[in-house]
Each structure stands twice: as structure tokens, then as C-alpha cells.
Amino acid sequence: MWRYLAGGTATLAIVAAGWLLAGSSARPDAVLLPQPKALRGAAASADPLPAMAPEATERSREQKRFDRFDKDRDGKVTREEYLAARRKAYAKLDVDQDGQLSFDEWAVKATTKFAGADTDSTGAMTPAEFATTAVTRKPQVRAKCPPAQAPEES
């Protein structure tokens, strides 16, 4: 019997809460937020917010990679900019600073890659030339799991 009484009380409480929420008079447009100091006064009457939010530009993976290398943002990747990452990696590899690993031996692949990509031999790569240096990625292959076996009944 007490279960029916508890269930009925809970049902009435839920109905009362729904009625209170549905009948509330709060409106989202009635909330006033404080304005920054720069907008107070004469400029406060103008609408400070644009009608639409600006949209981010869609940049390709290659454009983002080019921008990471182009440190001075001049639209070209120079040999020094291209080899900067290699210099940092070399400094990390030559921990004891004994000079056993020469930079020219270590960076021969990057130097050759740069020379091959710099088709007009200007010493700097244009975005189109830089695109040829992208690492080709292998598509990820998912492991194929065997199907689950049904439990044996004894």
C-alpha cells in the first residue's frame, strides 16, 4: 500500500514541477548583460554586435602546413625556414655536443628534397612548389577481429 502512496506523491510532484516550469514568465530577451566601458554613453544606443557571426575560412591541410614553415609570412618558404625544423631536431640528437653527427650528413635528405622542389632555383619555394614536399600518408587500416562466438550451452 505504501508503494502506491509514494508513487502517487512522486507523480503529483512531477506534474507540479512541470506546471511551474511551463507557466514561468522568464524570457531570454529580457536578460540584460552589462556593457563594456567603451560602449557606455553615446555609443551605447547603437547595436555593438553584428547581425551574423563571422565564419572561419576553410584552410586545407597543405595551407596550414605551408603556414607553419613560412615563419616571416611572405608567401614563400626559404631554405632557412625549411631547414629550421631540422636544425632543432639535430640539436636534440647531438646531446653530448661532440659533433660526431654532422648537419650536412643528417640533413642530406631535406636538402635534396628542397632542391628538387625548388624547380625555378630561386632559393625559395612558392606554395605550389612547397605542396610537392608533402609527406604521403598511408590510409589507416582497421584490424579485422574475428566474429564473437556464441556461448556454449551445456
Helix tally equals 6
The unreliable regions are none
User: Mean pLDDT, nearest integer?
Assistant: 77
Architecture of the domain at 61-131 in CATH? Answer: Orthogonal Bundle
Structural class: mainly alpha
Q: How many strands in all? A: 2
Spatial separation of the terminal alpha carbons: 43 Å
Radius of gyration: 33 Å
What is the fold named in CATH at topology level of the domain at 61-131?
Answer: Recoverin, domain 1
Binned strand content = under 5%
Shape: elongated
Q: What is the percent of helical residues? A: 40-55%
- CATH class of the domain at 61-131 equals Mainly Alpha
Could you state the order of secondary-structure elements as H and E?
HHEHHHEH
Description of the molecule:
With 154 residues, the chain is an all-alpha fold. It has helices spanning 2-22, 61-69, 79-93, 103-106, 108-117, 127-131; strands at 77-78, 124-125. The chain has a domain at 61-131: Recoverin, domain 1 (Orthogonal Bundle), CATH 1.10.238. The chain contains six helices and two strands. A two-stranded antiparallel ribbon has the order 1-2. The longest helix has 21 residues, at 2-22. The protein is elongated. The two termini are 43 Å apart.
Keywords:
EF_Hand_1_Ca_BS; 154 residues; mainly alpha; single chain; Recoverin, domain 1
Topology:
Layout: H1 2-22, H2 61-69, E1 77-78, H3 79-93, H4 103-106, H5 108-117, E2 124-125, H6 127-131
Antiparallel strand pairs: 1-2
